[in-house]
TrEMBL record:
NCBIfam families (UniProt xref): mutY, PRK10880.1
Cofactor(s) this protein requires: [4Fe-4S] cluster
Homology family: Belongs to the Nth/MutY family.
Cofactor note: Binds 1 [4Fe-4S] cluster.
Catalysis performed (reactions): Hydrolyzes free adenine bases from 7,8-dihydro-8-oxoguanine:adenine mismatched double-stranded DNA, leaving an apurinic site
Name this protein carries in UniProt: Adenine DNA glycosylase
Cited InterPro entries: A/G_AdeGlyc_MutY, DNA_glycosylase, HhH-GPD_domain, HhH_base_excis_C, HhH_motif, MIG/MutY, MutY_C, NUDIX_hydrolase-like_dom_sf
A Pfam family per the record: HhH-GPD
Residue ranges crossing the lipid bilayer per the database entry: none
Organism: Halomonas alkalicola
Amino acid sequence: MSEMPSPVLSAAEFQRRLLAWFDVHGRHDLPWQQERTPYRVWVSEIMLQQTQVATVIPYFERFMARFPTVRELAVAHQDEVLHLWTGLGYYARGRNLHKAAGVLLDEHGGDFPMDAEALAALPGIGRSTAGAIIAQSSGERAVILDGNVKRSLARLHAVEGWPGRPAVERRLWALAEHYTPHERLVDYTQAVMDLGATLCRRGTPECGRCPFADVCLAHARGAERRFPESKPKKSLPTRTTRMLLLRDARGRVLLEQRPASGLWGGLWSLPQFDDEAALTAWLDSHAPGSAIESAGAPFLHVFSHFRLEITPQPARVERLDAVGETRRWYDPENPDAVGLAAPVKSLLTSLAPLALDAPPGPYTHEEIDP
């Protein structure tokens, strides 16, 4: 099998059609398109990974208001960064953004190296994101292949196989390289992403409005939804956990910081236990005299690799000494600026002055952080 299917159009014709469509129908007023800088493009590209534009816009605007430069992001505490990321999901993105800002400040004086290989070496930046930063901020030629572009090219050429497989990805990169122009790189990069995001969508492609409908091989076969092939599915195992909602006399809730890597890495969460016996033993050891209340209704939080069934377990304690560096009291009515795991944030928000109301859930498709 060849590395690249034969292009259905010349590069010049593909670019002409795409840019003509973009000039009329593309997105030209997104926040990160204003005052384009490598920093603003970078933050937007990271936020847009696995996340829709409408969801990203308010997060991006808040993030830019608080961290307008690489330096301000680099010197901030991770808790504040993750606090502004809370609810956006895929929290490794926020941690890597913070780490990369530190590298940029320490090794590059806060500037971005306009070299794809150097950019891709930064935490959380891969080949496509590096290309987007260069093309969008400098106008220099750089190739991108995000999820939207993969889908459009896979359909246009009826590329068989899941794009996560190396051989399939190589073919798609070759096509992306073939079609990428040497001029109007800023517009082309946005246009090729917009095509997949607004027309060549995953479940409901609008082929009647597509500038490539007459040459799209998947459309000719009536098989648009077959391409690209989905990742082979595995059955998701279900794990269970009990989250301790330990409140003191002032109504504050005890939180623990998760380890730096792994599930909800670096975020603040409720103490978690495998079962009721383990939770009770912890209370006896760390908070003697606690009064355990009726457990809340279990709910599901679904990750990419497993489902987590969470049972909220309220309890009361008069006081708890020596909270320590990895534990803190959190006041739901006057919340701290800390990063919270999504179900924890929902549980804390649902706390009435003295009771747990309206349990959250279900949640779906949160990525497991590496």
